[in-house]
Amino acid sequence: MPGVPKNTKTENERNLNFWERLYLPEIFKGLRYSFRKMVKEPSYTTEYPDELWEPPDSYRGRPVLVEEEGKPRCVSCNLCAKACPPMAIAMQSREVDDPNSSKEREPAWFEINMLRCIYCGFCEEVCPEEAIV
């Protein structure tokens, strides 16, 4: 047949014996290793309702806006949106109508796009009012 090389073997390639060509011993080696790990190693599974998961100190959960008495703690400074590397935070500011309030502005709407969020925690670090946790 034209286009097909007659000798596909390279110079450095050695001949394999019967057991090396047969793949079953390698499968049995893998199964033996798996069964040994299954029997000897302790299980890392927790019984969920009885044992609660303790997150590590470095765990960063989903960032959310904190509310106090039904009102957001946010003063709408927009620092979190500027510090966010993937630009996952969007907000619209409005003036506060309540004259007794200590804030001048509050967010009309506040949105964190969780598909874009990379859980870096920069928004939490930069917030002066600790409104994002």
Task: Supply Rg.
Answer: 30 Å
Count of distinct strands: 4
Largest sheet: 2 strands, antiparallel
For the biggest β-sheet, the strand order reads 1-2
CATH topology of the domain at 67-126: Alpha-Beta Plaits
General description of the model:
- The protein is α+β, with helices and mostly antiparallel strands and 133 residues long.
- It has a domain at 67-126: Alpha-Beta Plaits (2-Layer Sandwich).
- The protein has helices at 18-21, 24-40, 79-83, 122-126; strands at residues 67-68, 71-72, 89-95, 105-112.
- It has a two-stranded antiparallel ribbon. A two-stranded antiparallel ribbon has the order 3-4.
- The mean pLDDT is 88.
What is the structure about, briefly put?
It is built from four helices and four strands, in the order ααββαββα. It is α+β, with helices and mostly antiparallel strands.
